[in-house]
Amino acid sequence: MGIVFTRMFSSLFGNKEARILVLGLDNAGKTTILYRLQMGEVVSTIPTIGFNVETVQYNNIKFQVWDLGGQTSIRPYWRCYFPNTQAIIYVVDSSDTDRIAIAKEEFHSILEEDELKGAIALILANKQDLPGALDAAAVTEALELHKIKNRQWAIFRTCAIKGEGLFEGMDCQMSDLVYVRMEASIGLIVE
């Protein structure tokens, strides 16, 4: 299956790397996810002030992945990185129930941005290993994902530290990127 996506992706995108933004509130696990995807291991991280950008190769496909800091003071600058983005990975700390409403507000605000209109969304309900973590269904409800219209999206339970759910999410995102690009190239998108 991976070889099929690799060939389709290459034919649709050429040598261009897909641009993916990793967004979410501070302490959600964005940087851990970035380096888990890139290096396959957990690295020691500190709060991201600004951004980290890495090229991640997955199933022979290269993605340019931007991990943006999630502190309140940094979030207004996220929009500077929106142009030319094909996908968003929105990371939610499933154990931080006190801030799930803020995570919802930020996520829906992102989805309303014109520059991200065509971007698919992968939501990672992270930190599933922690006590009291909301499962994917509860995060779906808390984020009101049922309100999302005219956009490909998926949610996965993840534990970045253990690497659980990340690669399933990437498989889904890759197939959605190919599907959306194929629709656009043959004119099936109706807005």
Automatic annotation (TrEMBL):
The keyword Protein transport applies. SMART domains: ARF, SAR. Gene3D superfamilies: P-loop containing nucleotide triphosphate hydrolases. GTP binds at residues 24-31, 70, 126-129. One of its GO terms (cellular component) is Golgi stack. One of its GO terms (biological process) is vesicle-mediated transport. It is found in: Golgi apparatus. Coiled coil: none annotated. Its main location: Golgi. InterPro entries: P-loop_NTPase (IPR027417), Small_GTP-bd (IPR005225), Small_GTPase_ARF (IPR024156), Small_GTPase_ARF/SAR (IPR006689). It comes from the Eukaryota. GO terms for molecular function: GTP binding; GTPase activity; metal ion binding. Mg(2+) binds at residues 31, 48. Keywords: ER-Golgi transport, Golgi apparatus, GTP-binding, Lipoprotein, Magnesium, Metal-binding, Myristate, Nucleotide-binding, Protein transport, Transport. Belongs to the small GTPase superfamily. Arf family. GTP-binding protein involved in protein trafficking; may modulate vesicle budding and uncoating within the Golgi apparatus. This is Small GTPase superfamily, Rab type. It comes from Corchorus capsularis.
